[in-house]
Specification:
Helices cover 55% and strands 9% of the residues. The strands form two sheets. It has a two-stranded antiparallel ribbon with strand order 1-2. A hairpin with a 2-residue loop joins strand 1 and strand 2. The two termini are 34 Å apart. It comes from Mucilaginibacter pedocola. InterPro entries: ABATE, ABATE_dom_sf, Znf_CGNR. This is Zinc finger CGNR domain-containing protein.
Length: 207
Amino acid sequence: MTKLSTSKTMTLDGGNPCLDFVNSGYDREPGIITERLHTYQDLLILSQRLGLVDEEYFKNLSGLAAQKEIDAADALENAREVRDRLYQAFSRIAKGELPGQEPLQYLEDVFSRALVCRRPVMKDNKIRLGFDYDRAGLNGPLWLIAGQSYELLATGELSAIRQCPGCAWLFYDRSRSGRKKWCSMASCGNSQKTKRYYRKRFAADAS
């Protein structure tokens, strides 16, 4: 994981939109600005990068946020709080533990509120589950993320949820072997290999 502090430039190594969302507020490295959702616009930018918000929806919400700044600030705070609870649940799952009753009860309420914004729509002669953008309002991105989180918890392979030992980011292991250790070999994996190499070399030189 490259240590960046903005929603525009953070790497998306989570393998699942909801895990990338959770990672937007966490980092193990000291002295690094870990919060990437400083404004409602940051939430929109990240949601668009995750494929949850298209260009038209992005513009509509940006305009609405400019008109309702207090509501936008509340929506951002809601997103951060849900992110914290998702981190509690997924980080425990990554350790092979149960999420715990308290975060699950909280998330149950979140999922229920998100479900209110889903509606059946006809597409390609089939009934599909659509999204009521008007009803969702400024919380739209959060409810879309909540939907992704519910799907992962309900239908995903929970044993594939991992936590990178290098940066503490969460990721979904989609490797064939099912033994992926790092969020990204290009960053955390190679960094740890380099550190081990120099530790061994230093120990050899000192002996």
